[in-house]
Structure formats: structure tokens, C-alpha cells
Design a protein that fits this description.
Blueprint (H helix, E strand, L loop, with lengths): L9 H8 L63 E2 L8 E7 L6 H12 L4 E4 L1 H6 L1 H9 L3 E4 L12 H19 L5 E2 L8 H11 L2 E3 L7 H4 L2 H11 L5 E5 L3 H16 L3 E2 L2 H6 L51
Parallel strand pairs: 1-6, 2-3, 2-7, 2-8, 3-4, 5-6
Helix pairs in contact: 2-9, 4-5, 8-9
The structure holds zinc ion.
Length: 326
């Protein structure tokens, strides 16, 4: 059965369904742009200087940060996205996007191993295809592997067919590299509409993972600042966003781990954190105020994600990707 979504961009659909309900003020173009190790197969991967510039008329989504954790598509059903979790303990999740990187990722893995810290890697499909051995190592050392699309495009502006291809191919690349069917997905720039999140959950069994701590490591490229911001913002249940393609970020990791450990925090993978999620309110009953910087046209700035875990979090079961004949 063909979805009529194929013929219309999600954006159009959203503008009908959500624009009036959700503020358009936040453009989630938080993320840095990946520099893939290989030439993107399909869409060109933007550089930091050439982010997909969402225009006012083509906002990827009423990407209200607070929607992280809101149940969509079925009333108070299960959550499809998370910006952080509500946990009884002191667990947090360190996450690394855009890799694997030929040298920085292995060095990071060494650092994590020495400290017995587990993390989650949201990987770009083209880099997975370029460095399958690193992917294998990530899994063998107890970390979680997750999808971050194939070529790091602004998915919130793309039609379903293209998004499907981005997700399917990445899923297959990770599966081929390490045998794991990923269940966690992070959209580049955080750009993924509420409709898309529900779709990704039903179609791929993915939960959309955002973040509540963003040190802007891709932008500042300063280990001390990265460390300071993470230590300042991380609390139990936090999902910390970093990028293992940057040397300065990897340089910051030892101090980050030390500092957070001294605050009594423990490190788990995103899936483990979600399995502990108590749902309900996250302590604020609404959007947690963690906004740091305002979005700019061009999407370089980060508008921080906020948390609002909604209903009780259940981990969507990984399901097989069902390639839709192409
Ligand atoms: Zn990214």
C-alpha cells in the first residue's frame, strides 16, 4: 500500500496539522554537520558553513523541544521520542554523533574502556560503511550503536521516500558491520517532525533520541568549554550530546567523566537509560528550561532541546527493517 505521504513532504502535512498548535519559534537546527569520511552516495553532506538553511516558509517542523517524550499518534500511548529521562537513580547517557571517525573514535573508545564507561554512538551511514571495523569494536566493547541517518540531511524537510532511504540504508549498514538492529535514532539537527517520529516508531521500531545537554562542541572546539558546559548542565536522566569526529571533544572526555562521576552520576547507554525511564513528568511538568542560544537563520545555532518525558517510557522493540521494494 502506498502512502500518500510519498507525494507530499512532511512539512506540508505538518503545516496542516500542527502549525497552529505548535510554536514555530524554535528551529531545531542544533546539530553540527557531519563530515563524512566518504563521499556521500546521494545527497551532498553539508559542511558547517553550509547548513541546510531552513527558510521561514519551510521550517522542518514545529520542532518544539518540549515534544521530546510526548506520546504521539495514539493519544497517551508509548513515547516515541526522548530528550532526557526521569530516573530514580543517578544515570546519564553520553552520546556521540556523526562518526565513526578514523582516529578520534578509536581514541575515544580507548578512553571509555579505561574508565569502564558505556556510551551511545549515533553514526552516519556513510561513515559506517567506511569504517565497519570501528563499528564492530564499538559494539564489542559494550556500547550502543544507533542511527544518525545516511548522509546527515535535514530530514524534517524531506519527503517520506527519501527519509525511508536514509534510514533503511543506515540500518542495513550497521547491521552488516556489527550484526545489530538499531532501535535508537537521532535526526541530524534534531530536525524530525512529530509526525515523522511516530512514523519512524511504527515503521522501523525507532525511538527518536534528542538531548538535553548540548555543549556545542562542534562549534566551540574547546575542550575546557565543552567540559564546563556538560558539568554544568548534566543531571540524573540527562542525555548529553557530543561529537566524536572532533578531537577537542574527545580531549574533553576524561575530564567530563571525572567531573560527572564526582557528582555521583553513572554512565549508561541510551537504551539502558530509557529502560529506567519513569515517564510522567520529568520534574518540571513541562518543557524544561535549558535553552541556551537562539536559533539563527541558517540553522547554525543551537536551540536547546528541552525535556518533557510524557507517558511511561517503553522501549520500542527493535523490528526488522522492512525494505519497501525499491
Ligand atoms: Zn549530527
Amino acid at each position: 500500500m502506498k502512502r500518500d505521504l510519498n507525494s507530499a513532504p512532511f512539512v506540508s502535512r505538518l503545516s496542516q496539522a500542527f502549525v497552529c498548535a505548535v510554536s514555530l519559534s524554535v528551529l531545531c537546527a542544533q546539530e553540527p554537520v557531519v563530515q563524512p569520511a566518504v563521499v556521500p552516495v546521494q545527497a551532498p553532506v553539508p559542511t558547517n558553513e553550509a547548513l541546510p538553511a531552513p527558510s521561514a516558509v519551510a521550517l522542518p517542523a514545529p520542532e518544539t523541544p518540549g515534544t521530546g517524550g510526548v506520546a504521539v499518534g495514539g493519544g497517551a500511548a508509548k513515547k516515541t521520542s526522548y530528550s532526557r529521562c526521569k530516573v530514580d537513580g543517578r544515570q546519564v547517557a553520553l552520546t556521540f554523533d556523526d562518526g565513526p571517525h578514523a582516529t578520534n573514535t578509536p581514541r575515544l573508545l580507548d578512553l571509555l574502556k579505561e574508565r569502564n564507561v558505556k556510551a551511545t554512538f549515533f553514526m552516519v551511514g556513510t561513515n559506517v560503511e567506511a569504517y565497519p571495523e570501528i563499528v564492530k569494536r564499538i559494539v564489542s566493547e559494550g556500547h550502543e550503536v544507533a542511527s544518525h541517518s545516511l548522509t546527515h540531511p535535514n530530514l524534517g524537510k524531506m519527503a517520506e521516500g527519501s527519509v525511508t532511504e536514509q534510514l533503511e540504508r543506515t540500518h542495513r549498514a550497521i547491521k552488516a558491520a556489527c550484526g545489530v538492529d538499531v532501535v535508537s535514532f537521532r535526526p541530524p539537527y534534531g530536525s524530525f517532525t512529530v509526525t515523522q517520529r511516530a512514523w519512524a516508531a511504527s515503521r522501523f521500531g525507532y525511538r527518536t533520541i534528542l538531548w538535553d545537554v548540548d555543549p556545542l562542541d562542534w562549534k566551540v572546539r574547546d575542550s575546557a568549554k565543552v567540559e564546563a558546559e556538560i558539568l554544568r548542565g548534566t543531571t540524573p536522566g540527562s542525555i548529553v550530546l557530543m561529537h566524536d569526529i572532533h578531537k577537542t571533544t574527545v580531549d574533553a572526555v576524561p575530564a567530563v567523566i571525572k567531573g560527572l562521576s564526582e557528582k555521583g552520576l553513572e554512565f549508561v547507554t541510551v537504551s539502558a537509560l530509557i529502560s529506567m525511564d519513569q515517564g510522567g513528568d520529568s520534574g518540571s511538568g513541562g518543557a524544561a528550561p535549558t535553552s541556551k542560544s537562539s536559533p539563527k537563520a541558517g540553522g547554525k545555532s543551537v536551540s536547546e532541546s528541552k525535556s518533557k518525558p510524557g507517558s511511561s517510557g517503553k522501549i520500542p522493540k527493535a523490528v526488522e527493517v522492512k525494505p519497501k521494494g525499491k
